[in-house]
Design brief:
This is Mobilization protein. The protein is mainly α and about 110 residues long. About 70% of the residues lie in helices and about 0% in strands. The C terminus is likely disordered.
Length: about 110
């Protein structure tokens, strides 16, 4: 083979390799974007559930006790600190909002 034919093949191979690398980068970027979107959705779901739990705790002592138990189970210091150092207090129902008796039986009020 002459040098000219060898150079043409090398140019074709180099161009194909460059397209392959571009495709790999595009795939990686697409996967990263999808992962970011999934994390965003999961974070939103957690925020909504947390807000719902806090709201319910304001009206029902059972949910206040759930929050207390969850707080006791925190093990990472940064998680404990997030609540301890910022004055978090478990929401409690006011007497006129609590339809349950002390034993947790609903009174229907």
């Amino acid at each position: 083979m002459s040098d000219t034919v060898q150079n043409k093949k090398s140019a074709k191979v180099l161009a194909a390799e460059e397209r392959l690398e571009q495709a790999k980068r595009a795939l990686r970027d697409a996967k990263q974007a999808e992962n970011r979107q999934q994390r965003k959705i999961a974070d939103r779901q957690k925020i909504i559930l947390g807000a719902t739990l806090l709201n319910l705790a304001e009206r029902d002592e059972r949910f206040s006790r759930v929050i207390d138990e969850l707080l006791k189970r925190l093990t990472r210091e940064q998680d404990v600190k997030a609540f301890r150092d910022h004055g978090f207090a478990t929401p409690r129902p006011t007497n006129d909002q609590n339809p349950a008796t002390e034993d947790g039986v609903h009174t229907g009020a």
